Every structure is written in structure tokens, then in C-alpha cells.
Task: structure prediction
Amino acid sequence: MKSGFLSLLTVAASVVFSGSGWGQDAEPQFELGFSGANSETISGISGLTFSQTIDCILTITENPTEAGAQGWSISLAGDSDLEIVGITVDGTAAADEDDGGLRSGGFEKSELTEGEGNAGAVSAIILSFTEFVALPASGTATIARVDIRCPFPEVDATETKVVRYVDGLRGVGQPVDNVITHQNSGILPRTTPYEVDLLGTDENAVTYDCNVDGVVNIADAVCLVDWLFIGGPAPGCRDAMEFNGDGRLNVADCISGLNYLFHGGPPPASGAGCQSYPDCDLQDACGV
Result:
């Protein structure tokens, strides 16, 4: 027996494709995957939270017809202690046409799922009930975005965190499977997981603590000015003084730090207080 989402997608496809005359044997290849910044190991202070937004993508290949998917349902979960904490179709092909997407008079339901063995997220999309609307016949489209989070691992430990498409998670409706609707049929896609490697590091420097006394105040701005323009001692950790996050250490960082300290300006780009600066050898700086 089909799940509620699958039945709804199949009915919608039947309405729009009725009388189209397309052959029933044509079946393109669909693959569900992810896209995100995972090409390199991401380091962070052990125990603090890693968070990231990744794209759910649908790739269509070997398509003998002139149209792509008219709808789909997806169900996904994180391995181990990785949580999915948000899901949206905003900014994707599944968004309403008034918001830059393709959906026109269709259906959208995206939600987090909860409970033991049921934690993750689901999304169901029908691009239109009343007219022919479909993804392009071939290529890759973003169909949802999810927010993930987990703690960074222990110091010097590297862990691989994984998000997978898994059938059967349940929100407020019936269990949801990963299904693509094309030409009156619900097609099971191939799936590819998302993997990101995380490295746990030590706290080793206080942001904007130029003189390495464990306290951030006007003396640190003076310390930076002295080094930049008067030949004074170098900051204990130069990376920690790069306040505004533009990749350059100059007078703008002096001003940004002062604005933060005395005028309610934005906090340092790398985070206030003890942070991880891998190129600085100041293992005791945070304990001052």
C-alpha cells in the first residue's frame, strides 16, 4: 500500500499527464544527493557546536522524455550525534513561483521529524495541480536546504559526520519515502549521502588579546597600533587580532575592535573570547 505522500504525488502526476500520449516505458535516472562545503576537514574547538547549511539536490540523467520531475518526496536523517535542525525550500526550485521557484498552485510540506529512530526531516512537493510544471529534463536542481549541527570531536580527533536519505520517517502525516514523480509513475531514485570531516582542536588564544594578558581592553588596541606603525612588539597571536574577518591585519582591525569594546559594534568575526587559531602556538593563553 502506498504511503500518503506517494499517493498524493501519483494522483497529481496522473491529472497533469492525462492525455499526454507519452510512452509509459520511458524512465530517466534520478539521483538524490547533497551539496555543501565538505571538500576539506573543518576544524573547531572540541565540544563547541559545528553548524552548516547544506543543499538537497536532485540530478536527472538519461532522460528520453522532454520533462523532468513534477514532484517528489524526500526523507533524510543524520548519523550518530549529527542533528538536522531546520529544513526549507526557500531559494530552491521547490519554492513558490512568486519567490523565484517553479511551484505554481501545487503543494509543499516540509518539516522536522522527532522521536527515537525517527529524527530527521521530510519534504513533499507537487509543482502544480492544474498545469504542466516540471524540472528541466536533465541537470541538477536544488530542491531543499537543511541546517545541520553537532559538537566538534575531542582534541586531535577527526570524525566523519553523515547525512543520508532514509525511507520511512514520519512527520504529522504518513511515513515518507524517497520517491520522484515522473510521467504518471513514482520512481525510486539512487541516493548519495553527505559526509563532512570534523577535527577537534584546543582553545589557544583570546580574540583581540594583543598583549596576551587574558583580558581584552584598550591596551590591546594600543598594542596593535604600536606594532603596525611604531615598531612595537608583535601581537602574541596575529590571527587573533584580525578582528573584522577580511583576511588582512591593518588599521581597520584597530577601529573594529574599539567599536566593539566601546560603541556596541559587531563582535569579532572569529568569535569573542577563547578561540582556536591553529597557526598560533599559545596553548596556555586562554588560561591566563
